[in-house]
Amino acid sequence: MSAKSLVITLYFLLCTGCVCADNSQNFQVSAIIDACLDEISEEVIPCEGVGYLPYYTVSPNTPLEAIENDVNGYVVMEFTVDEQGIPKEIIVVESEPEGVFDKAAIDALSQFRYNPPIVNNQPHAVRGVLYKVEFNQRADQK
């Protein structure tokens, strides 16, 4: 685990009250975190498998050809959530069938909104976020 990841982990544990039962200890941990954050120049927080979920989503528009041919599938995308909570730099890391649903998934994901983490009273971007969109014709028709 990198130093920055450790600091971010400690910060979130501190915020949720999971670090120390004694408030004086929490203050010391908080001071250490603040000092470490001052040393970290990178302003993008890596997403390390944490369930980082959007607060606003849009259903994708299934391609007409997929509907007509009753094709099901999925698209897994990786992206960065910027300081305003907007997905950027979206890339497809896996899709099945390949290329069929990619555009529809990217178009939908680009409209999602996230709450960026706040560190030192500043919103920070989060990179390496993964999201899977599933296209299931039978489920969509119910």
Features:
2 domains, 142 residues, elongated, 6 strands, 5 helices, alpha+beta, four-stranded mixed sheet
Q: Can you identify the CATH class of the largest domain?
A: Alpha Beta
- The number of helical segments is 5
Going across the major beta sheet, what is the strand order? 1-6-2-3
- Any idea of the CATH topology of the largest domain? TolA/TonB C-terminal domain
Low-confidence stretches: 10-30, 35-42
- Describe the largest sheet: 4 strands, mixed
- From the N-terminal CA to the C-terminal CA, the straight-line distance is 45 Å
Q: Give the SSE string.
A: HHEHEEHEEEH
Oligomer: single chain
Detailed description of the structure:
This protein is of the alpha+beta class and 142 residues long. It folds into 2 domains: 3-42; 46-140, TolA/TonB C-terminal domain. Helices cover 33% and strands 26% of the residues. It is built from 5 helices and 6 strands; from the N terminus they run H-H-E-H-E-E-H-E-E-E-H. It has helices spanning 3-15, 23-39, 64-68, 102-109, 137-140; strands spanning 44-46, 73-81, 87-96, 118-119, 122-123, 125-135. The longest helix is centred in the N-terminal third of the chain and has 17 residues, at 23-39. The radius of gyration is 19 Å and the shape is elongated.
